[in-house]
Amino acid sequence: MSDHPDTTVGPTPAHEPPYYAVVFTSVRRPDEDADDYRRTAARLSRLVRDIPGFLGEDFAHSPAPGGLAISVAYFRDLEGIRRWRDHPEHLDAKRRGRERWYERYVIHIARVEHSHAFGGPA
Amino acid sequence: MSDHPDTTVGPTPAHEPPYYAVVFTSVRRPDEDADDYRRTAARLSRLVRDIPGFLGEDFAHSPAPGGLAISVAYFRDLEGIRRWRDHPEHLDAKRRGRERWYERYVIHIARVEHSHAFGGPA
């Protein structure tokens, strides 16, 4: 089972470029506090919707031990990314993430130059 | 269980920007041919490594019905993305993907401007 509220929603539609993607790829620790992680992820997923320029978020998590989780959040501009980066609850969650949940992660902030969709309401 | 050979490897390290990310977010059909899909995914995952400028690929797939799959492939430049886009076996797989496997997908091609890593050998 997934541990993220949005797994069955999406994918986020293609938007008119340019826009920005924040790719967050992570491996969690085996001894993490999963309940606290889930609560925090659900809370952040609600909070980010209030950031001006937020376009959507996609999430996938392979369940195998050591499996990757990938979240991709889309924003219209870098200002939205900065606001989200500096949001107090997000800052606190990132600190707890480094202390408790993540074995490792990589973040890529990228300017989307092309996008297209197949099928569905995109 | 995962259906992709690379799920327990990664994440791809942060590289020196600029580089490019191809984000492929998909929902598969419930009646897909899973064996053919898996074979093709494994074959493509080997082929892409021979593309000049290929930097790595991360994959995650939430197992719930309707769960998203996200793959992110990283390339040094757009020329590598074009070569991969036009690779004959990749073209054939994309055609079969639209005909057989995918209910919908969205592709975002993005220029990575910032990246950083926490933990692990990155």
How would you characterize the overall build of this protein?
Two copies of one chain form a homodimer. Chain A is globular, with a radius of gyration of 14 Å. The model of chain A has no long low-confidence stretch (mean pLDDT 90). Chain A has one domain: 2-Layer Sandwich (Alpha-Beta Plaits). Chain A is of the alpha+beta class and 122 residues long. The first copy, chain A, has a four-stranded antiparallel sheet with strand order 2-3-1-4. The first copy, chain A, contains three helices and four strands. β4 of chain A pairs antiparallel with β4 of chain B, so a sheet runs across the interface. Chains A, B: Keywords: Monooxygenase, Oxidoreductase.
CATH class of chain A: Alpha Beta
Largest interface: chains, residues each: A-B, 52 and 52 residues
Structural class of chain A: alpha+beta
Q: Report the sheet-strand fraction of chain A.
A: 25-35%
Q: Provide mean pLDDT of chain A, rounded.
A: 90
CATH 2nd-level architecture of chain A: 2-Layer Sandwich
Largest beta-sheet characterization of chain A: 4 strands, antiparallel
Q: What is the total tally of β strands of chain A?
A: 4
Large-scale geometry of chain A: globular
Q: Strand-and-helix sequence of chain A, N→C?
A: EHEEHHE
* Low-pLDDT runs of chain A: none
GO molecular function (chains A, B): monooxygenase activity
Protein name (chains A, B): Antibiotic biosynthesis monooxygenase
Pfam families (chains A, B): ABM (PF03992)
Organism (chains A, B): Streptomyces broussonetiae
